[in-house]
Structures are given as C-alpha cells and as structure tokens.
Amino acid sequence: MVGFKATDVPPTATVKFLGAGTAACIADLITFPLDTAKVRLQIQGERQGPVRAAANMQYRGVLGTILTMVRTEGPRSLYNGLVAGLQRQMSFASVRIGLYDSVKQFYTKGSEHAGIGSRLLAGSTTGALAVAVAQPTDVVKVRFQAQARAVGGQRYQSTVDAYKTIAREEGFRGLWKGTSPNIARNAIVNCAELVTYDLIKDALLKANLMTGSCPPFSVWVPGTW
Predict the structure, then answer these.
(1) How far apart are the first and last CA of the chain?
(2) What's phi and psi for 81, nearest 5 deg?
(3) Of 44, 96, 213, 220, which is most buried, counting CB atoms within 10 Å of its CB?
(4) Could you tell me how far CA 43 lies from the centroid of its own chain?
(5) In CATH, what number is assigned to the domain containing residue 146?
C-alpha cells in the first residue's frame, strides 16, 4: 500500500480470524491430552453412589489419569475427539479472539479511543457468539473424550457419526446442550482475558515502554514491539 511500510499495514479481519483459529489449533494439539484427562477426572463416578465412587476411583491426578489411559486404552486414547477439538478451536477462537477488534470498532463507531465499556461489550459479544457457533463441536469433543476405548461397544465411531447420532437420538438441540452456562462463562472469560490485555497494552504504549500497535491477535513483526 502506498504510504505504508510493510510493518505498518495492520492485519485484516480475515487474517486475524484465520490466525487466531490456526494458533488455537496448534495449542490444542499440544495440550489435548491434558484436556482429555480433565474430562475423565470430571466425569469419574458419575453413575455411582458417593461411597462406591470413592472406592472404585480409576483415575487419580492428572499424571495418573494419563498413565492409566495409556496403559488400559493405548496412547491414541489421549487424543479421543481431537478432530472435533480442532473444529472447535477453528470456529471458537477465530470468533472469540479474531473478531474482537472488529466488534470493538463497531461499538466505538470507528473511534481510536475505546472506553472500557466498549471493550467489555466487545469481549462479552465475541465470547458469547463464539460459544453459540462452536457449541456442537464442544459437545462432540467431550463425548469422545468421555468414552473409554477399553469398554466394548463405543457409542460413536467417528466425528461425523457422533454429530449424526446425537442429532438423531437427542434432536438438533442435543448438539447445543450446555450452551447457556457456557455462554455466561466464556463471556466473562473473554472480557477478563482480552480486555485486560487491551488495557495493559495501552498503558505500556502510553508509558513509551514499547512502540507500535498490536491488537489482541495480530501478526508480530520484529521491530514493531
């Protein structure tokens, strides 16, 4: 573009959208076994009484859960639901993070000076919208993580089969189970994460501790920070 150096051109909304989703997918690939262990620990003893559940605890601690799953179900069990997990990140993070700047500009009507109210609105809006879009992928991911390979007769044989089975047996609304609390949670989390980042970044820029402009998700170029 005329009048701009390569490092001065801000990333487009499309770049932010795709970049946020791609970065989240990479992070998910690395941390997915921890997420699977978390789900197994959360649902442990779900169908048992408190006394029986305590006596028959299969998983103990994060490391113990991972080792038990590897020993009884194989290493691949740690990545049960990975496809749905990547689908979730690509749709969830892209909206939650990638659209934050665009929504903030919408609330401020293009003004460069965004108040904390506009930032909170933008954070809660993209957080809630991301859940509304990505909830079916989250439901399928958790269902896959919860089913043990060692137990015969797995309910879901593939990601596509999981979507179809849930829709057929529970209705399309079954794919959006848990949406309301998830929207409330992620609206708050998004405000806490992105608005805090935004305010700290502005404070550092005003104090001349760094130069340039870096939105909540952008392409970092050496020399711009």
Answers:
(1) 21
(2) 85, 10
(3) 96
(4) 20
(5) 1.50.40.10
Q: State how many domains the chain has.
A: 1
Alpha carbon of residue 208 to chain centroid: 33
Residue 19, in any domain of the structure:
no
Residues sharing a CB contact under 8 Å with residue 57, sequence separation 6 or more, in sequence order: 44, 45
Indicate the pTM of the whole model: 0.78
- 128 lies in some domain: yes
Total count of residues recorded for the chain? 225
pLDDT tens string 125-169: 999 999 999 999 999 999 998 887 545 557 888 899 999 999 999
116-146 helix and 196-206 helix, angle to the nearest 10 degrees = 140
Q: Based on the number of CB atoms within 10 Å of its own CB, is 181 exposed (0-12), middle (13-18) or buried (19 or more)?
A: exposed
44, 58 contact by CB (below 8 A) = yes
Residue 203 lies in domain: 113-224
